[in-house]
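Appendix C: a fully annotated inverse folding record. The material below is reproduced so that readers can follow the format used throughout the book. The structure is listed first as tokens, followed by the designed sequence.
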């Protein structure tokens, strides 16, 4: 048995047999043609473009239910009809007497190499789009179309070096149970599609291909970001039970889709979703989420080459707000820094990045970046359902500074005659102990609070949330954390505002009764866990949950 770590694209567990899919290499001879062959070669190029464009159009129609797929295929079409590309290939044929295959493969090799050399994960992942287009074109001309995925069954876990977006769309129909790649990143188009398919998938499992043999038993655990190769009997048994449980729960949970989240004795708990990328919105709507309680906007900045403009951000926020209306969308201003680094900000090396320039500290330092984002959010609030939230607040003065900047943004938008909604709910994340302790002052200045337990646990217990070796010390139900949550809820209620939990604690069934008993009003969870959490809320009795909290506090206080 061997356990390897990777990066989880989507949650969920899969057990199956390894199907190793080798990278398909087309052997292109660097052939030159004679003068009299130019016309035929150009025609061959034009015909193959037409053929591949038709093929892509058919695919677009075929998988029209997924916007993510069609967007990517549309990008591929754009690459093919780009006049710069077509005229360059024609010039290579007519002036350099290259065969069409020679010219096309040289062109795409150059582009792919440029992308691969880039020190930017997002951009280097874009090379797979070009590889994909090149493969479509060249395999058609060389008549080398094979279905390299062959007969896969629902027991197959694909093991690959990397996977292109079109390959993911092909396996869409194959009904496999999981996917694991040696390279790749969470932001690659292929990962985005796999996520929208809800397929358990891990990427960036370094050394994967060296350690897996065809037909090995494989377990993918998207929840803990692990792949287990040739598991022993005990592990296999444990995971088989988890899968059975997963299936049963999945079926059972569909029944709660149309119910409102409330305890068995009638207390309403607003149940919303957390999203990181706009593509997740489809799953949010499908699961009838009551809006978005946390839109982490860092993705816009993390892999970008330049700062997203106000207009680009506005379009993204507006679309999400429109799709969710009338339900709320809480847009969190950027929480860069810590482990979420952006090439765009010159933060420099920090010895303790989690205690360094992070979250609101960055926004207050780079005011023009902050203002651009604030203006985009104000403009996107046309349906009156957008709220703005600040991360990593440590005391009320940061909220006051941020609010002053919001006022400046409103004035500037007014001066520019740009329409926006001046009424917007303002919230603070409570994820630093100092913020929880002073939540009375913070609540006075806010329209809502949201507790970020991921960081609150990290900072209260001084335990790095990403360090596996100290993970035993990471205890969300530690007495100190519970007291801070309780204090925050009481202070919010004192000022008649609502308080949510948007950290991962809210996505874990075992903490739901505890959070409800503590008096939480709202929960914001991973979209894939929404129904499971709703089911748990429906089975919770508020009175009993409050009693449970009293008992837990007594027991923990006795222990300490
Ligand atoms: C949190 O800290 O709980 C939280 C929701 O923020 P993030 O996980 O993005 O740091
Ligand atoms: Mg946080």
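Designed amino acids, in order:
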């Amino acid at each position: 048995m061997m356990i390897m770590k990777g990066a989880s694209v989507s949650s969920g567990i899969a057990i199956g047999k390894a199907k190793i899919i080798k990278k398909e290499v087309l052997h292109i001879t660097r052939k030159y043609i004679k003068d009299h062959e130019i016309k035929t070669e150009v025609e061959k190029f034009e015909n193959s473009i037409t053929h591949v464009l038709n093929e892509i159009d058919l695919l677009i129609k075929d998988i029209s239910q997924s916007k993510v797929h069609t967007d990517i295929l549309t990008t591929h079409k754009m690459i093919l009809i780009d006049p710069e590309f077509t005229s360059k290939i024609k010039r290579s044929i007519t002036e350099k007497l290259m065969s069409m295959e020679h010219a096309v493969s040289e062109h795409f090799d150059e582009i792919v190499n440029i992308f691969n050399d880039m020190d930017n994960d997002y951009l280097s992942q874009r090379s797979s789009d070009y590889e994909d287009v090149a493969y479509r074109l060249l395999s058609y001309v060389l008549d080398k179309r094979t279905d390299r995925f062959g007969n896969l069954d629902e027991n197959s876990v694909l093991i690959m070096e990397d996977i292109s977006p079109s390959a993911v769309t092909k396996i869409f129909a194959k009904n496999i149970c999981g996917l694991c790649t040696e390279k790749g990143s969470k932001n690659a188009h292929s990962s985005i599609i796999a996520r929208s398919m809800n397929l358990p998938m891990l990427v960036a499992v370094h050394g994967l291909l060296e350690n897996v043999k065809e037909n090995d038993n494989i377990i993918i655990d998207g929840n803990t970001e692990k792949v287990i190769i040739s598991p022993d009997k005990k592990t296999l048994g444990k995971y088989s039970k988890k899968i059975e449980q997963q299936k049963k729960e999945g079926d059972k949970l569909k029944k709660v889709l149309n119910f409102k989240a409330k305890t068995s004795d009638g207390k309403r708990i607003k149940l919303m979703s957390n999203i990181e990328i706009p593509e997740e919105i489809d799953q949010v709507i499908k699961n009838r989420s009551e809006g978005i309680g946390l839109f982490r906007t860092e993705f816009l900045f993390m892999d970008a080459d330049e700062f997203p403009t106000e207009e680009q951000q506005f379009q993204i926020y507006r679309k999400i707000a429109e799709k969710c209306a009338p339900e709320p969308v809480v847009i969190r201003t950027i929480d860069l820094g810590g482990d979420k680094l952006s090439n765009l900000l010159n933060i420099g090396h920090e010895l303790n990045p989690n205690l360094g320039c992070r979250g609101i500290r960055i926004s207050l330092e780079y005011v023009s970046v902050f203002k651009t984002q604030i203006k985009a959010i104000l403009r996107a609030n046309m349906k009156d359902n957008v709220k703005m939230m600040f991360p990593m607040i440590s005391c009320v003065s940061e909220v006051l500074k941020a609010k002053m900047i919001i006022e400046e943004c409103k004035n500037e938008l007014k001066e520019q005659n740009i329409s926006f909604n001046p009424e917007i709910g303002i919230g603070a994340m409570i994820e630093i102990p100092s913020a929880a302790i002073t939540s009375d002052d913070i609540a006075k200045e806010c329209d809502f609070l949201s507790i970020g337990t991921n960081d609150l646990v990290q900072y209260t217990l001084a335990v790095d949330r990403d360090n596996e070796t100290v993970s035993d010390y990471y205890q969300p139900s530690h007495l100190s954390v519970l007291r801070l949550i309780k204090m925050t809820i009481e202070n919010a209620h004192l000022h008649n505002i609502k308080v949510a939990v948007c950290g991962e604690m809210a996505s874990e069934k075992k903490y739901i009764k505890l959070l409800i008993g503590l008096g939480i009003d709202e929960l914001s969870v991973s979209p894939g866990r929404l129904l499971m959490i709703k089911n748990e809320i429906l089975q919770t009795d508020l009175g009993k949950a409050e009693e449970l909290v009293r008992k837990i506090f007594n027991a923990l206080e006795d222990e300490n």
